[in-house]
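chain below, 478 aa
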Amino acid sequence: MTSIFHCSLSKDFSLILNDADDYNVIIQVGKNNNIKEFRAHSIILRARSPYFKSAFSTNWIKKNDNMIMFSKPNLTPNVFETILKYIYTGELDLTMKSGEDILGLLVASDELLLEELFDYVQDYLIKKQKSWVCENVDLVLHSLFRLDNCKKLRDYCLEFISEDPLSFMSSEAFLSINEEILSILLKRDDLSIEEVIVWDYLIKWGIEQTPGLGKENSDRAKWNNKNYEALKKTLNEFIPFIQFIRISRADFFDKVRPYKNIIPKDIYEEIEEFYYKDTLPKAIVLLPRNDSLSKIKSRIIKPKLANIIFNWIDKKNNNYIRTINDPNYKINLIYRGSHHGINNESFKNNCNGRMASLVLIKVQESSKIFGGYSSIGFNSLGDDYIIENGYRWYSSSSDNFIFSFEHKEDTQNMKISRVIIDSKSMIVNRAGFNFGWGSLCMTNQTLHLNNSYNAYENNLKTNRTYLIEEIESFTITS
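prediction:
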């Protein structure tokens, strides 16, 4: 058995870093008035960092009396000091570091190919520095936007913005974001904001970015044709991502029509045809973005799946694009198992009623999500019932359906099973809920799926039980 003494090893290497006189590398870090020199050992740097291994083996490094002279003006002394301590000792303490230094450490560890450090710092920012990241989301995105390895943190920032885009768009930072970030935001299908507001802030961003306009020339009444052409050039690539079909006729007349000259002719003609004939545009990239649906407060599914569920309610195709003329559903959380308790009585006490309702279930030991929609709610109390085969049944509907998603963002492999009208499709009070003879049934912490009675289409193709990890129920109104 091998004995390991890492503690003393780390301590001794720390002494080498701080006190050794046999260094052979001088690294100058920083720029302007924030410059500092660090002394190090090439053999240790090369062993710990693929970046230094490559750099020290090339002909472009400078030597002075056999001393390697290296310069890193893009790193700050605070960040590089932390990196050197990590390289020599494997130790890292971020508790007293500023959010800006931690972000700089992430960018530096990516450049220096310190994979272990990079992964740790990225997770640290997401888990331990949420407040700072959210308050400085523009700085974070600008710093790491082109770093391929930062997808996790980048996605976290974009999701944060998507949940409350108005706060970001109304900030000074929005007016200076680069084109790539703006393009990605406009392409997202889960922006929780009215489309006309997106349009308003896109115009403001375009004015700020266009030479000859900006704060000194933001009054449209004073613009000439040259100003409009310049703004059109600035916004040309972004116009197709505006969901004009989600803008009301009144807002289109007041806020879009005045900028007719900056909208490509083919797009504008299709928008007008939509407002006159309800013909969906072809020249515009249509996304499943929906304001009311993206406000779903679910811990089980992502907002984009709500659009699919509402298309099922309206008996539309999965990929149908909802417009301003479609029902504007509102969805309100009335029950969450982790808060109210996962059991029959808790579900019935919170969900009893005759209002259209949706239930979502996350099961244990699987990424699968199940759910059901009842157009008449989960009415399990009162006198309106029948007794059949010893069971007390309360309500039935030909609009009910049950469904499954492979995971919380599944838009490709989801399945829906609609009720077979001639079968028993009632909600029964001997369980939390029961869609048609146990096709989808909750009994306390257990979810049962069994369509052997053919109450629903046999599309889920599942006959088993699961333990419930989380369950939510929502009322739906239009």
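The chain has three domains: 6-91, 164-277, 297-477. The mean pLDDT is 84.
thats it, cya
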